[in-house]
Design goal:
The complex is a heterodimer of chains A (about 350) and B (about 290). Chain A has about 350 residues and is mainly alpha-helical. Chain A has a single domain, classed as ABC transporter involved in vitamin B12 uptake, BtuC (Orthogonal Bundle). Helix content of chain A is about 75%, strand content about 0%. Chain A has 16 helices and two strands. Chain A has a two-stranded antiparallel ribbon with strand order 1-2. In chain A, helix 5 packs antiparallel against helix 11. Chain B has a domain of about 190 residues. Chain B is about 75% helix and about 0% strand. Chain B contains twelve helices and two strands; from the N terminus they run ααααββαααααααα. In chain B, strands 1-2 form a two-stranded antiparallel ribbon. Classes of the chains: A mainly alpha (about 350), B mainly alpha (about 290). The interface between A and B is large, with 48 and 41 residues.
Chain lengths: ~350, ~290
């Protein structure tokens, strides 16, 4: 049975996982994920690639909205900046993969400061509307600059070799690239959240005046939250561009920002595990629901395939409503409950 | 000169619509501190309902107006009862997310029922526009402006003189105290949602008659945001006036800068408004600073 009471050194208190066997379990998970391309057909791990990219985006958004409490409806804008930076740099300027990805993150982070500065004076809803306005303006400007971005006819994206040597043509290579970025982002975020920066964000989320009195520079940490989050989201956007290999501003509508918010709400605000679980659920949801509707007979099945976008919208809306109403702490809370039940079994209560 | 005047008038006609929607945002925000992201969708839904009524009957004006009134009250009431009421006491963020989810739900259900294509409203005739001082004016645009003016006056009088309106202002300034004074705050929430749905419904039916009826009506809700921010989220009449300003700014941008910038002109305006005067032109100054 696991208990949390026996801590003998400070390093035990501040370790990433409280138990040694947690590392083993995550090792098993990593092994399965690494072996996946050899275990399942291509379309499944192509699907998992989409999930991984969504995970990166959700973890990024979770930093600014979940941990720091600054509501952002501008996810689509940051994703678009990341995606188009990669698209333009690799296709038109022949940049390498790694440098283009980094540039995407940096461009997105730089743009986030534009939203971050008004955010210093705004709270809650006003901030949500500012980020929404930002996202609409960004997508519109991208659509307008058609000499650079292809405008409404879209931009095909070249997928260059990694460091000039590793070929990236195959779906498998894309899968491993997304996996590597996702693992790095998750580890970096977990570590960031338990050091001074992450605790400062949590403090300004809970009560900003008290946080200021504790010596937290609000200006710096709010801008930092925006920048770090936008950097990660920019990476996700860059991976999106490389994965789809074709960009169009239609795919960066308001619904994308809402999907991202839905991911972190469904997962549980403020927790990295929640963001991961939420991203997985929300990405799988349309296909999951299509499958479920198909099981009920041919009428609902044909309805689901005939008006897929509408069914998808209805299901998103109902899932968001359900979680807000019934489980505001999200999947993360359920995960903890189930874990406690089984780790204390048969003495669980 | 007549080019400029035409742009201004077209802007006023669109701005009146923004103003009506912005009033809806402001009424709900004033009472419950919640921004209703589904305002544009509610407008679309009521217009579609009236469209269905007009399609199945002879489409007389009286029936359509009746359909708008009945469906607006019903929609406002049902949303308040089944979406807003269960979330009372939760953080504002949750309630706002709830309205966003509601917006997606209404949009998807409407697309499922009425399809994705725009229709012409039955009975909407194309009347020759008349010309005053070089400005082309459609009769229905004049009706829209007149209705806008009438609703502004009515809402102002309601908030100023009616006992429910006074209770709304009291709740806006301090919900706890007004509750202690015997005001039923939950009933006020219901009133606010019904009134705002009613205004949205009227705006929707006018838009549907002037232009067309289709899924893109929902976007007007988002484009009316700048108006309510500029006017101040908690100032109902301010939002209405700011609607006209945003409409004219959009129209002038479209006419003099570039047609493509028309859609984002309002959002650029609010980015600056939020940086310089976050509480808007007429709003209450209670935003904290860092």
């Amino acid at each position: 049975m696991r208990t949390r009471t026996y801590k003998e050194t400070y390093s035990q208190l501040s370790s990433l996982f409280p138990y040694a066997d947690t590392w083993a379990w995550y090792g098993v998970l990593m092994a399965i994920v690494l072996a996946l391309p050899w275990l399942v057909p291509t379309y499944i791990f192509a699907y998992v690639t989409l999930v991984l990219i969504a995970v990166i985006g959700a973890v990024g958004l979770n930093i600014v909205t979940g941990t720091a409490g600054l509501i952002s409806l501008g996810q689509a804008g940051f994703l678009a900046i990341g995606a188009y930076t990669t698209g333009i740099l690799t296709t038109s300027y022949g940049w390498g993969l790694a440098s283009a990805m980094l540039a995407s993150g940096v461009a997105s982070a730089a743009a986030s400061l534009l939203v971050g500065i008004p955010s210093l004076r705004l709270k809650g809803l006003y901030l949500a509307i500012t980020t929404l306005a930002f996202s609409i303006i960004v997508v519109h400007l991208i659509n307008d600059a058609d000499s650079l971005t292809g405008g409404s006819s879209g931009l095909p994206v070249r997928r260059p070799d990694l460091f000039g040597v590793v070929p990236m043509r195959s779906q498998m290579a894309m899968y491993f690239l997304s996996l590597a970025v996702a693992v790095l982002v998750i580890l970096a975020t977990l570590n960031l959240l338990r050091c001074r920066v992450g605790r400062a964000w949590a403090a300004l989320h809970d009560y900003d005046i008290a946080a200021t009195l504790m010596g937290i520079n609000l200006v710096r940490y709010k801008l930092l939250a925006f920048a770090v989050s936008a950097f990660i989201v920019g990476l996700a956007g860059s991976l999106m561009a490389l994965n789809i290999r074709y960009l169009n501003t239609d795919s960066f509508g308001l619904i994308l920002s809402i999907e991202a918010i839905a991911m972190i709400i469904v997962g549980g605000l403020g927790s990295v595990r929640g963001a991961v679980l939420g991203a997985i659920l929300i990405t799988l949801l349309p296909d999951l629901s299509r499958w479920v509707l198909g099981q009920f007979g041919s009428f609902t099945g044909s309805l689901a395939s005939g008006s897929a976008a509408e069914i998808k919208g209805i299901i998103y809306a109902l899932v968001i409503m359900f979680f807000l109403r019934m489980e505001p702490e999200g999947l993360n809370h359920q995960w903890k409950r189930i874990k406690r039940f089984w780790s204390e079994w048969p003495y669980s209560h | 000169m007549s080019y400029f005047l035409n742009l201004v008038f077209a802007g006023l006609a669109v701005g009146a619509l923004y103003g009506l929607l912005a009033m809806g945002y402001a009424i709900i925000f004033k009472v419950s501190r919640v921004v209703n992201f589904a305002q544009g969708e509610i407008m679309m839904l009521i217009a579609y309902m009236a469209y269905s009524v007009a399609l199945r009957t002879d489409g007389s004006a009286l029936l359509v107006v009746l359909a708008v009134l009945v469906s607006s009250v019903a929609v406002g009431f049902l949303i308040e009862r089944f979406v807003v009421r269960p979330m009372l006491g939760q953080p504002v963020f949750s309630l706002v997310m709830m309205t966003i989810a509601l917006a997606i739900l209404i949009r998807s259900v409407a697309a499922l029922i009425w399809g994705n294509y725009p229709y012409r409203f039955p009975g909407a005739e194309t009347v020759q526009p008349f010309v005053i001082a070089g400005v082309y004016i459609q009769p229905l645009q004049m009706v829209l402006l007149a209705v806008y003016g009438a609703i502004c006056v009515a809402v102002w009088a309601f908030l100023r003189f009616n006992i429910v309106g006074i209770a709304m202002r009291a709740t806006a300034s301090d919900a706890t105290v007004s509750m202690l004074m015997g005001v039923s705050v939950t009933r006020l929430y219901r009133t606010a949602w019904v009134v705002s749905a009613l205004i949205a419904g009227i705006a929707g039916i006018l838009f549907a008659n002037i232009n067309h009826i289709g899924p893109d009506m929902a976007h007007i809700g988002i484009r009316a945001f700048p108006a309510t921010i500029l006017g101040g989220l908690d100032s109902v009449i301010g939002s209405a006036v700011a609607g006209l300003i945003i409409g004219v700014v959009e129209s002038l941008t479209g006419g003099y800068v570039a047609a493509t910038y028309k859609e984002i002109a309002g959002f650029v305006v609010i980015l600056f408004v939020l940086m310089i005067r976050p509480y808007g032109l007429f709003g209450q100054r209670n935003i904290e600073r860092v």
